[in-house]
Amino acid sequence: MKMDVLLGLQWGDEGKGKIVDVLAPQYEVVARFQGGPNAGHTLEFDGIKHVLHQIPSGIFRSQILNIIGNGVVLDPIVLKKEIDGLGKFSIDYQKNLVVSKKATIIIPTHKLLDAALETSKGDKKIGSTLKGIGPTYQDKIGRAALRVGDILSSDFREKYDTLVEKHKTTLSFYNHPIDALPEMEAQFFAAIEFFKTLNLIDSEYVVNDALASNKKILAEGAQGSLLDIDFGSYPFVTSSTTMTAGACTGLGVAPSKIGEVFGIFKAYCTRVGSGPFPTELFDHTGEAMRKEGNEFGSTTGRPRRCGWLDLPALRYSIMINGVTQLFMMKADVLNIFEEINVCTYYELPTGERIDRLSFEISELDVQPVYKVFKGWHCSLGDVRSYDEFPSELKEYVSYLENDLQVPIKLVSVGPDRIQTILR
Ligand code: GDP
Ligand code: IMO
Ligand code: MG
Predict the structure, then answer these.
(1) Does residue 263 have its Cβ closer than 6 Å to ligand 1?
(2) Quick check: pTM over 0.90?
């Protein structure tokens, strides 16, 4: 059996949580492979709306084993809160949730460092979620981090103190206040005691044993390909490998064992945080998109920047991920527009046409060139089959499929589980 991967093709918040929850009944295992509490994955069903940050989105399906893989950076305080918040759903964590001992732990000073580094960047700040992601991955790569398995060892406190001392030197260099640290540490160590009661495992064996015994696994990406540490709009990126390859390193699965790659994109674009966004709309159209799509961050509540669909960027994401099926989300948000634009390429002031995301692109004054589509201008909320789609939406979908050369197998027309049309 091969492992399928589902990931975002834009700047995150494409609707990954919703679709993992929709597809979960077809799988036995759902696994997160990178990122951490910077993610906010929203699920809606039976009148319930729930946002997950670190727990995989298969958690509401009792037959599914949910794995937090080695590639994740995990905040024990957030994990405890998440589990407490799920109390009313009678989920059996011992049975349905396991955590890799090789996952990296976010400690309180990582969050302070995140804030200190952002402040020091002034108007060049990344717009980090301030969850400690960058500093934790920095320590991981720098071979200094604490891992989940460490919490079980008798010298965990010693290891912790050594790392904190190092962090304090940097915090003092940035003149960053550490008054909040004692309270944060009290919460952290209480959460660590709770953490010890969870099922901590060598998840690479569990994943590979599952594949060997023909079990179906879905790897759930966080963030999006345009926030990838290598291929995103650096430095305005997150600190992990958000693409398909990250599912191999973040779970211990060989590239030859990757099956379908489901690429999720919104029928338009959003970005939260700083960085280039060629099709961004600064006018009432962008405002209307934000309002209609309820485009406010699931983790930070920040308003998301909105703009038209960007095909050069989408083609790039499809290429680096080896996407085999596309899922188009939030088609219903475009209901309100008379005309819908899609950027097919960019143009420089010299008139030169560009359709590749080169190293230099963020330095260039690129203007999106749009193809204009007629809007469908009707509600899609109650549509339950592709046949019921207005002809204008069908035209939009088939144009994108033709351009992207990958089939659009799913169109989402609302946040609820049932508002999902399979083709
Ligand atoms: P994720 O991070 O990729 O899981 O996405 P988020 O949960 O951060 O953001 C997606 C938002 O869009 C959430 O509020 C979802 O409930 C909502 N959503 C998902 N699919 C649709 C859709 O097809 N239509 C509408 N209107 N909302 C959707
Ligand atoms: P999900 O999984 C959207 C963005 C931040 C910032 C940059 C770096 O819900 O799609 P970080 O906290 O990682 O240091 O922030 O990345 N970012 C996200 N944007 N969705 C996310 O996750 C994001 N996770 C990080 O806004 O611009
Ligand atoms: Mg999100």
Answers:
(1) no
(2) yes
